[in-house]
Amino acid sequence: MTTHLESPIAYLKGVGPKRAELLKVELGVNTFFDLLQHLPFRYEDRSVFHRISDIEADSTSLQLKGKITKKELVGGKKASRLVAVFQDGDGALELVWFKGAKWIINQLPLNVEVVVFGRPTKFGSKWNIAHPEVEKADAFEKRRGGGLHPIYSSTEKLTNRGLNSAGLARLIRVAWDGTQSEFTETLPDHLLSELKFPSRREAFEMVHAPRTPLEADRALKRLRFEELLYLQLVLLQHKRTLTVDLPGVVFSHVGEKFHQFYSQYLPFELTNAQKRVLKEIRADLKTGWHMNRLLQGDVGSGKTIVALMAALLAIDNGYQACIMAPTEILAFQHAEGIGDLLKDMDVSVEIITGSVKKSARKPILEGLADGRVDILIGTHSLIEPTVVFKNLGLAVIDEQHKFGVAQRSKLWAKSKIPPHVLVMTATPIPRTLAMTAYGDLDISVLDELPPGRKEIVTAHRTDTKRLEILSFIEKQVKQGRQVYMVYPLIDESATIDYKDLMDGYESISRRFPLPQYQIGIVHGRMKPADKDIEMKRFASGQSQILVATTVIEVGVNVPNATLMVIESAERFGLSQLHQLRGRVGRGGGQSYCILMTKDEFSSEARRRLETMCRTNDGFEIAEVDMEIRGPGDILGTQQSGVPDLKIADLMRDREIMSTARYIAQRVLDEDPGLELPTHTTLKNNLVRILKDRPNWSRIS
Ligand code: ADP
Ligand code: MG
Question: Measured on CA atoms in the order 552, 554, 560, 565, is the torsion positive or negative?
Fold first, then answer.
């Protein structure tokens, strides 16, 4: 029978229908090629022989050379155990088998040189190895066994059918022998030589049977790179169709409003990062292409002012702008803040949210339609069909992670020529993840905080320190400062969480009684209007302590608040903790964040708490968060932002991803349609890949 790479795996010698079904279910392997893409996850170096006298505690599997001098079945009549004595001239240890003892005893050669491989454990004062691999030394040498052994991941079910790592390795060798001539090149020659990569055929050979660790490494790199390069080509081509190929409104000049604001009303000097990002945005806006840009900036890095100035550019060029926020509180805060900054300028700012009544909406909608309203701020109410702009030129989406991708695209329909889009994230996403999940967006980064910010001092305390914390709260309040006390509310319907919150509110109210102290409370079960009253009381300084759930997480700005106590901090996610902490440290005063926990919590929680105490840097925190939770969870379930990858891994291969992005960009800059003869390989493979992985083009 002739087989080839795409043949069903059942046709592989040694597989058959039962194993084929298991391979499909357990590893997603359907074809020969799928099997060959099941790459080793590590290698065992079998070129080194250890000595029994060198074995150290906690060692991993080792390879030894010596002789078996004695073998016997023990365990009485049942003879359930096989024990052999193995010596290498320096020392002796025992080899033990609990399974298959009667069969194995006949296979064990006595007094000839053997190679033994396994994991030593200490038994009293003696070492022993359970279920070692044993092979005659001459056979070992004959098959050149002394190289690197690939170790493949397997599953219990596969192992039960003889397909553990070694079993898979055997199948892979058979599959490789039959198909290796079919491995044609998928990368252009000039890239192979530039990056010093082996050919594709060599790479597959080297990855499954490397002679040296370096070879394995190069082969793996090449295969990972290849997958990521094609992913980036797909994303960047998609991005081109959304930008270069899609006409964007042209903001040809910087006009009066922008200049007036910059010279007269800007209340502070822009940070260098803000200036740089504004330049990037301006460059986009005047090209005539469509801007699709992600602005990443840590809490407090000053994204709002960047959005506002971009909006002024739109207005200067005769267009309207809108800013969409994820919550009412935030929308109103933006409206107030921006209204305040623009109060002496002739720019009309309006707001629409769910709670803006019909009667109040009417004049706003009219003003939008005839162009009197310059900037519209709101929640997702903005994308309702009744909201019609005269000529929307720029849409800003704040705190993107709260919006689904679908909502973003709805904004586009608001204008004949789609408005430029600026997406701002509250939680930094690791850069390489952003390159993928938001692969069709350009990325700007505000990597600098406005001057004068003091690091927030963060500490972890257990419940036993509660009294001290209460006096610390008192001290802050006596100094005229304000305090947030945050309770977890993971599940809106979880009554037990509300009980914690209410108990906390009561005990804090007893400790800080009226009329000297005013305590506020906000949570998700309150009516928006009541929530609003409480927030305003706190924002204006009427209440000193605000007991709250995570509803205060996003964006809320009360510069006089300098202390945040987070209760049951072990229950919060890392990015959520960071978001919450960002509510303090917004004014000039030294701010504090205290993470309260029980005495015991998981090691993962410990890692989160330690990270919070160690750093204030949102990007660093995002990296740790991605390590803990993986890329999928970071983006949340609404976002289908994680591509299916067979070989590469978004976490592990961050550096390779950067290279792939860079090269893909360079190729497309030179040759957008991949028409050049040197890019034929890329073009052909891209077509094939898009057929195999249609979801790659739908990532964001
Ligand atoms: P975020 O990026 O979290 O949305 P904001 O835009 O709300 O941050 O800005 C946080 C605070 O920093 C605001 O009070 C804002 O007025 C202030 N701010 C922004 N840029 C600067 C700057 N260049 N210098 C001083 N303060 C600034
Ligand atoms: Mg903000």
Answer: positive
> Which DSSP state fits 158?
H
Q: In what order do the strands lie in the sheet with 120-123?
A: 120-123, 126-130, 92-97, 81-87, 62-74, 113-118, 133-136
> What CATH number has the domain spanning 256-285+302-425?
3.40.50.300
Residues of the chain with CATH 2.40.50.140: 42-151
Reported as half-sphere exposure (CB side, CA atoms, 13 A), residue 648 has a value of 27
pLDDT level of residue 406 (50, 70, 90 thresholds): low
User: 204 φ, ψ to 5°?
Assistant: -65, -35
Any residues with CB less than 8 A from the CB of 244 and at least 6 apart, and which?
289, 290, 672
User: Where does 457-615 sit in CATH, by number?
Assistant: 3.40.50.300
Pairwise CA distance, residues 245 & 227, whole Å: 26
CATH 2.40.50.140 holds for 42-151: yes
For residue 554, the CA-to-ligand 2 centroid distance in Å is 8
Residue 463 confidence (pLDDT) above 50: yes
CB burial of 325-353 (b: ≥16 within 10 Å; e: otherwise) equals bbbbbbbbbbbeebbebbeebebbbbbbb
In the reported structure, the alpha carbon of residue 589 is separated from the centroid of ligand 1 by a whole-number distance in angstroms of 15
Give the span between the Cα atoms of 679 and 178, in whole angstroms.
Answer: 29
Q: Choose among 303, 310, 323, 424: nearest CA to 373.
A: 323
DSSP label of 50: B
- Taking only the tens place, the pLDDT of each residue in 553-587 is 565 678 899 999 999 999 999 988 998 998 898 87
Find the DSSP H helices in 603-678: 603-614, 618-635, 654-670
Helix (H, G, I), strand (E, B) or coil at 213: helix
Judge whether 489 and 501 are in contact, CB under 8 Å.
yes
Mark the residues whose beta carbon lies below 5 A from ion ligand 2: 555
> Could you give the CA distance from residue 582 to residue 635 in angstroms, rounded to a whole number?
20
Q: Which residues pair with 43 in a beta bridge?
A: 150
Residue in 276, 301, 427, 558 to alter for ligand 1 test, most ligand atoms within 8 A of Cβ: 301
